[in-house]
Amino acid sequence: MSQPVIQTEQLTKRFGAFTAVDRISFQVDKGEIFGFLGANGAGKTTAMRMLCGLSKPTSGKGTVAGYNIASQSESVKRSIGYMSQKFSLYEDLKVWENIRLFAGIYGMEERLIAPKTDELLTRLGFADERNTLVKSLPLGWKQKLSFSVSIFHEPRIVFLDEPTGGVDPVTRRQFWELIYDAADRGITVFVTTHYMDEAEYCNRVSIMVDGRIEALDTPGNLKQQFGAHSMDEVFLQLARKATRKAD
């Protein structure tokens, strides 16, 4: 059995008296597409920031790619790719310039960047857009380019924070094809989303409610466990249960 590439134990983040992430424990295996689901404000992004080495936990433990997220955050950052919901591309640079810039940031060897850029542009069907300013691209194209740039250096893990927000259903499905392709190449995909239908595309999902993981399993097993026909129904049941607890 291979060592998990992400592992947490009682991971917690507090801001004063407010607990944003409350003692979450889980693990993610190599090449897995792991969905981190929950409503806006559930604590997903805060948890992801800790896993990416961008925010130190208040308590608990976590490792990513074998590195401690609290004490080895720089090593964590060098081992991962990251794509935010607002896209990290520079709008006033050309397509190829963005790829070149991020390849340098990720520390890729100079001799590999140019041929790999040509290969990527051909694979995405962007060869004719090589010299186009990114701000001129349609939103769906920006999204595909941003994801491709985030895994250009072949990281062990890529973190995607609400990557399909604001795009149409067809483009969302096309984006998930890119995710499957990355997973087939051995890249572990950790994706946060509040679109419950996207859970169906994941190998396993965790569902966060008010900072806690309230369910974690395959989509099929969760639907069976909750007697539900969709992941929306599963989430609704968990949300109702949390409301009753609060009352």
From TrEMBL:
Q: Which SMART domains match?
A: AAA (SM00382)
Q: Does the keyword Ion transport apply?
A: no
Q: What is this protein called?
A: ABC-2 type transport system ATP-binding protein
Checking PANTHER family in the record gives: ABC TRANSPORTER G FAMILY MEMBER 20 ISOFORM X1, ATP-BINDING CASSETTE, SUB-FAMILY H, MEMBER 1
Q: Which UniProt keywords apply?
A: ATP-binding, Nucleotide-binding
- GO molecular function per UniProt: ATP binding; ATP hydrolysis activity
Q: Where is the ABC transporter domain?
A: 6-235
